Each structure stands twice: as structure tokens, then as C-alpha cells.
Amino acid sequence: MLQEYKDKKNKLLNQYDKILKFPNILSEDIKIEHIQEKKKQLEEEHFFVSFTGQIKAGKSTLINALLFGEEVIPSDDTPHTAKITIIKYGEKPMLEATFYSKEEWEVLESNQEFYEEFLKPDIEKSVNKGVYVNEIINKTAKIKKENDLENLTEYVARDGKYTPFVNLVTLYYPNEILKEITIVDTPGTNDPNKLRDKVAKEWIHKTNANIYITYANQAMDKVDIDFIDNFLLSVPKEQKLTVVNKIDSVNDTDGLEEYITELLADESLKRREIVSDRESLVLVSGLGALIDKMLTKELSLNEELEYYAKELDEKGFLEPENHKLSTLEKMIEQKLIQNKGQNILETHIKFLDSLFEKRVIELTKKINVEKSNLNYLFTENKDLEKKLEDIYNFNYTLDKSTRHFIPFIQLKSHKLIIYI
User: Fold this and answer.
1) CATH (domain of 209)
2) Residue 242, C-beta contacts closer than 8 angstroms, at least 6 positions apart
3) Rounded to two decimals, what is the model's pTM?
4) Among 173, 199, 177, which residue's Cα sits nearest to residue 186?
5) Would you say residue 186 has pLDDT above 50?
6) Which phi and psi (to 5°) does residue 184 adopt?
């Protein structure tokens, strides 16, 4: 079995080598660097799992419950403060914040509407805290390290003094699951920061598996569908999980079942292999799971969590069998980690197929355009031939008429001369 895996892996590496040797077979928008990076991922057997979904779907709360058992990643993010967060295994907690480079910062400043509405007010707050643009933004992206996660809020939270200058954050944490996978927490699919949105999409393209998070009573809308079409169609269905979060927000069991029935009946989601059957959905209360873990660890709750703790306790969502985090952990283990080797191969097979499929589609479109042009020219040629034929017929008629008419004119002229 291991030898079979190695043989398949080597065949895929050879395919990457062939593409790198003949890059002209690629679509114009595919960068060689991207192919080189995918090859490196396969060589090193990295397995990235992206968490995606709209802002307010509860991604941060769910990740906090799943990995940390306490509030580490702030959940008060907004469309302009949310950061790309890479979470890897580390012997001890630490963080690395990567700031924007000077070139990237200039791109942000050039987007005047975004800058004036979002960035400028936050920059002014940072200045009031003694942090200035010219100290943070360098020609090359600056990285700031912290030996724990205590100050994470200063880099990613709404009022963090470094928040407006941070492009992405990498966290290291000693959770066993992170020995098997690296988690990529992306900003919401409705991110107004076009530069960060671009980086997030690049990371999503790198991932081997995806966990898409929606929440109870919130039907998947056009933003969800567009995002799925653009970024998740290349992810094999075996490597996709759909999580319905905030099941505690539904008033009754019947209401939840009705919501699930609607999702399962959605043909557009079936075609996209997002929700294919009941087993492909994981139902959780991320908030209930987080509070349960914090109480188990005897950690203090802030005022907001205290309020929700009482409410969720009354509904029973602080009980593991009701908040169902263990179901998500089990699905990640069974569907993603246990099949990690096969999933890595499948990801690269799907990626390579998508490269050629995209090129075939592009070439087909070009062929169709050329065919259309040829048909147009052919039609024009036929029209020209018809016009030439009409001119020829006219000339023939004119010539024939002239030949009959000239003798008549000559006769008239002769008579006129005699008369004179």
C-alpha cells in the first residue's frame, strides 16, 4: 500500500516536471510559481484545510472550540479587520504577524473608498497608541514575532494597535490535530479588502480540503454560491465538509429539520457537491462547545459569554451530545486525516486535471471565435460574390442595351445631319 502511494506520488511529480518544462501549455493566468509551489507541497506532503464562509457564520468561535478550548482568535471581526490566519503545530504557543509591504500598502491606499471608510479611522486609532505607518510599512513585508498568544488581539482585533497594517497571521499551537493538518482561517467571503481577498483566494487554491461554514436559518445566498463556484469546485467532494453552525439559534427541532430539508433539496448545492446527503452535513453549536470547554478547564467567562452560558445551559447546548463538537472532530478524523495520503494525491490529480480542463475550455473558445470569424468572412465573401454577380448582370444588361441603342442614335444623327 505504501509503495503504491509512493509510485502515484512520483507519477504526479513527473507531471509537474513536464508542465514546468513546457509552461506554454498552461493558461495565461496560471503562474509558474504556483505550479512550483504545488509541486513542493506534494513533495513535503503538506495537508492544508481551509475554513471558509461568510463573516458572522461563527468561524472564529468554532475554531476556538476545536483547537484552543478558549477564546484565542477574536470573534468580533468585521469585514475590514478579519485576517488570514494560518494555524500550525508548535511545541509552544507563539505567533508571527506579517505586515503589508510598501507596494501592497500603496495598493490599499489607491482604493480610496476602502481607505477612507475602513483604513483611515483605524490608522488614526493606531497613531493615538503610538504606532505609525512609516515605522511598520517597509519595502519588504515585515514580520513581528511574539512568544505567546497573549497579544494576538493587538494584531487582529477591531481595536488592535497593529490591526490595520497586518496582512496575515501565523499561529503555532500544541494541538495533536495540527500535527496532521494545517488550518487556514480565511476572512469572510464578503471581504471588501481586495488585496486581502486576493491573498485569501490564493491560500484557498493551495488547500487540500475545505470546511465550509454556514449557519442555521441562513440559506446559502448568491455570495456563497459565487464563492463555491470560483474556489471550491476543484476540491474533491471527499475532501469537503459542510458545517451548519449556530444550531442553538433555532427555536425547535422541527425548525432545524426544515432548514436541513431545504439544504438537501437545493439542486444547485447538489451539483456543486457541497450538500449531497444528510451525512455530508455536520451540525454544531460552536458557542456552546466553546463555553463547555472553558467551563471544563475552569476558565473565567467574560460578561458576554456569561450571558450566553445561561441561555445555552437552559437550552441544553452546553452538553457535548447537544453541541455536537465531537461529531465534527470525528468527521475531520475519519474523512480528512485517516485518508490524508489518498486525499493529498486526489487533490493534486484534481488540480492537474483542472489545469488541462481550463486550457481545453480556453482553446475551445478560441476555436469557436475563429470559426465565427471564418463564417463571417465566408458570409461576407458570399455577399461580395452576389454583389459582383449583380454588377456583372447590370453591366451585361447595360452593354446589351447600349448595343441596341447606338444604331438608333446613329440613325437619328444621320437624319439630323441631312436635315441640316
Assistant:
1) 3.40.50.300
2) 211, 212, 214, 274, 275, 280, 281, 282
3) 0.72
4) 199
5) yes
6) -115, 110
